[in-house]
Write a structure and sequence with these properties.
The chain has a six-stranded mixed β-sheet. Strands 2-4-10-6-7 form a five-stranded mixed β-sheet, with no helix packed on it. β8 and β9 form a beta hairpin. It folds into two domains: about 70 residues; about 190 residues, Jelly Rolls, CATH 2.60.120. With about 300 residues, it is of the alpha+beta class. Helices cover about 35% and strands about 25% of the residues. α1 packs antiparallel against α2.
Length: about 300
């Protein structure tokens, strides 16, 4: 997450400025120390809150009612980072959504499944695929091309990335239809801009208040079918899918590194840990300086 180091630097500068300001004001050391602690807590809360939200896609959950793109959720801006979580209840089930794009923007798509049974044991032909219809009515199918495992630290869930797609977008609405030959869960991610709370057409967000677990974790922990021996045996057939080959640096590679790869997520987490440790050290030093300079 490239914005995290900048955010940490700005926060530490603000914290140092607070120490200098409190040293110069004509108040007792105890009052200055209290003000410093409040300032510290506010900065830490802002940085941790920002880091937690900006490291993931904005989740959207597809249901059986969203059986066609024209009925499913409508994303007003396909460059905003969304993750469409769905579950195909039957081999004949379909789910879909639409996204609006502007001419010249980048259409970034990825197809994933949970790295858990039964999906991890599906045969290659049973994995879900996405038919993408462009505004000019041409289309392509996003299907399994490689196998890349990664762990999402904020929800503690693991996925198999099956395919990526990047192209220059046309002006208009893209229609995406997800289908498969077996019941199972999937995730379709779209966009790169981290902007949460965007209003989505034809969709009502699930309530989060009062839940013991997040909607994403609940979705992940709900299996789509029995963990049969056939699924376990067919896990070996996933090895027939070629491993992902790193291409020349480009927008698609940048998106993968920033939003979904374990290294990028760990980097963001490490910067947050570094920030908290630096705040503790600076807080101790700040209190010592304030106490020394104040009567």
């Amino acid at each position: 997450m490239p914005t995290t180091p900048i955010l940490v630097f700005v926060a530490l500068c603000a914290l140092a400025l607070g120490v200098v300001t409190l040293v110069r004001v004509s108040t007792s050391w105890s009052r200055a120390a209290r003000r410093f602690c409040v300032w510290l807590v506010l900065i830490v809360a802002v940085v941790i809150g920002y880091s937690a939200t900006s490291s993931a896609h904005d989740p959207v959950f597809l249901t059986d009612d969203h059986f066609a793109p024209e009925i499913g959720p409508f994303l007003p801006d396909g460059t905003i980072s969304f993750a469409m979580y769905g579950r195909l209840a039957e081999p004949t089930s379909t789910q879909g959504f639409q996204a609006r794009m502007q001419q010249g923007q980048s259409l970034n798509l990825s197809l994933l499944v949970p790295a858990a049974l039964p999906e991890i044991g599906f045969e290659i032909g049973s994995l879900p695929e996405v038919k993408v219809t462009r505004p000019d009515q041409t289309s392509f199918v996003l299907s399994a091309q490689f196998r890349e495992t990664f762990h999402e630290p904020f929800t503690n869930t693991t996925y198999l990335r099956l395919a990526d797609h990047l192209e220059e977008a046309q002006q208009g609405e893209y229609s995406l239809l997800i289908s498969g030959t077996a019941a199972g869960r999937y995730v379709v991610s779209i966009g790169t801009l981290e902007r949460f709370g965007t209003e989505i057409g034809r969709y009502t967000r699930p309530l989060v208040v009062g839940r013991s677990t997040s909607p994403v974790v609940e979705w992940f922990e709900t299996n789509s079918g029995p963990e049969s021996n056939e699924n376990v045996e067919s896990l070996k057939k996933l090895n027939d899918v070629p491993k992902k080959v790193t291409s020349e640096p480009g927008p698609e590679q940048t998106r993968t590194n920033q939003t979904t790869s374990p290294g990028a997520a760990d980097t963001g987490t490490n910067w947050t840990v570094f920030f908290v440790a630096a705040c503790v050290a600076l807080a101790l030093a700040g209190v010592a300086v304030i106490r020394k300079r104040k009567p």
